[in-house]
Specification:
- This protein is an alpha+beta fold.
- The longest helix has 18 residues.
- The chain contains seven helices and twelve strands.
- The termini are close together.
- It has one domain: Endonuclease/exonuclease/phosphatase (Deoxyribonuclease I, Chain A, 4-Layer Sandwich).
- The protein has a six-stranded mixed sheet.
- Helix 3 packs parallel to helix 4.
- Helix 3 links the parallel strand 7 and strand 8.
């Protein structure tokens, strides 16, 4: 079973070519569950669903959230949380989206989020991940598996990420399989990121986290994806994505 997260950069840059690159990459990576950020157009979400053949789409109607989940697994429930913590550098709110999926007799709770982006906004992001944790605690299943993914806009050693992982006990799937590797998802190898104004440092800011029960003996692969041009020499986004693959273990069939 494959789960992929990507910030799509919506319609910035050469977005028509990027859209084709996005579709081509998704066909190549073939995720079963796809968590997208910065996808603000409902028509585009439905177009992606149609072109990629996903039977289920859960999206938010909040114009500034841009959070979408495409899934081959049937959703049972969903909810949206608007962060009470608003960045002093932004005029819009941030959100988290929860979708409860049915997984071969088990429940898979997926949470998709996108936190404030300014480099100097560490305090805002730390408050936002505290809200995110409360949202997760309210909605995730008592039994089952949990995945939290998205664009956190902060590095693994930031106060926000260290607090969140410390309190949640979730495992960073990339670090689990690639200890010590940079795993950059905002990289100057990406010309879209390189040309961003203001210029931002290279960092790993996109994550796919999972509870220990889902990782142990099940996580078989995790890699940075969408880091090479897909179509006509164009990258899909200014971000790279993260793909994790989980396999059955013991009596749990995925």
């Amino acid at each position: 079973m494959r789960i992929l997260t990507l910030n799509t950069w919506h319609n910035s840059g050469p977005w028509r070519q990027r859209r084709d690159a996005l579709v081509q990459g998704m066909i190549q990576y073939a995720p079963d569950v796809l968590l997208l950020q910065e996808l603000f157009d409902a028509d585009w979400s439905e177009e992606l669903q149609s072109r990629l053949g996903y039977p289920y789409l859960v999206s938010t109607e909040c114009i500034h959230s841009g959070l979408v989940v495409l899934s081959k697994l049937p959703p049972q429930h969903s909810a949206i949380h608007r962060m009470k913590t608003k960045s002093p550098f932004e005029t819009y709110w941030r959100y988290a989206l929860w979708v409860d999926l049915r997984l071969s007799g088990h429940r898979l709770s997926v949470f998709n989020t996108h936190l404030s982006w300014e480099l100097q906004d560490d305090a805002t992001r730390e408050a936002q991940v505290r809200e995110l944790w409360s949202f997760i605690e309210t909605h995730r299943a008592d039994s089952g598996f949990t995945v939290v993914a998205g664009d956190f806009n902060c590095t693994p050693d930031s106060t926000a990420m260290t607090w969140f992982i410390g309190h949640s006990s979730f495992i960073d799937t990339y670090v689990n399989l690639h200890p010590g590797a940079a795993g950059l998802t905002w990289s100057n190898r990406n010309l879209f990121a390189q040309n961003h104004r203001p210029v931002l440092p290279e960092r790993r800011i996109d994550y796919l986290l999972a509870d220990p029960g889902f990782v142990k003996n099940r996580l078989t692969r995790c890699e940075v994806v969408f880091d090479v041009p897909q179509a006509a020499g164009v990258l899909a986004s200014d971000h790279f994505g993260v793909l994790a693959e989980f396999e059955p273990s013991g009596s749990a069939n995925l």
